[in-house]
Design goal:
Largest sheet: 7 strands, mixed
Order of helices and strands: EEEEEEEEEEE
Number of helices: 0
Length: about 120
């Protein structure tokens, strides 16, 4: 199975940027589709962005045009570049790895993103 460790969260002002990283270990990284989810207080966890088969990306409507997901298989890492951040982006962001053959999902511990002036 794969272990996931997120980093890069923090406090940022509205309009600012952050880049989240998720480092994977313990398995063959390239066989996993990767995604970023977030969960705000009192809300359900929601998909922010995903990258499948290494190149196919999809985004939540709220993330389109502002966030970019990418992966570096050589570094076993997936990134989420977040620009033009808004207070409503405040949430715990979780990295997800989905095994394409087995259908199993793995989660990181989450990283807090707070957008506030």
């Amino acid at each position: 199975q794969v272990q996931l460790v997120e980093s890069g969260g923090g406090l940022v002002q509205p309009g600012g940027s952050l880049r989240l990283s998720c480092a994977a270990s313990g398995s063959i990284f390239s066989i996993y589709d990767m995604g970023w989810y977030r969960q705000a207080p009192g809300k359900q966890r929601e998909l922010v962005a995903a990258i499948r088969s290494g190149v196919i990306t999809n985004y939540a409507d709220s993330a389109k045009g502002r966030f970019t997901i990418s992966r570096d298989n050589a570094k076993n890492t997936v990134y989420l570049q977040m620009n033009s951040l808004k207070p409503e982006d405040t949430a715990v962001y979780y990295c997800n790895a989905h095994h394409r053959l087995r259908g199993t999902d793995y989660w990181g511990q989450g990283t807090q993103v707070t957008v506030s002036s």
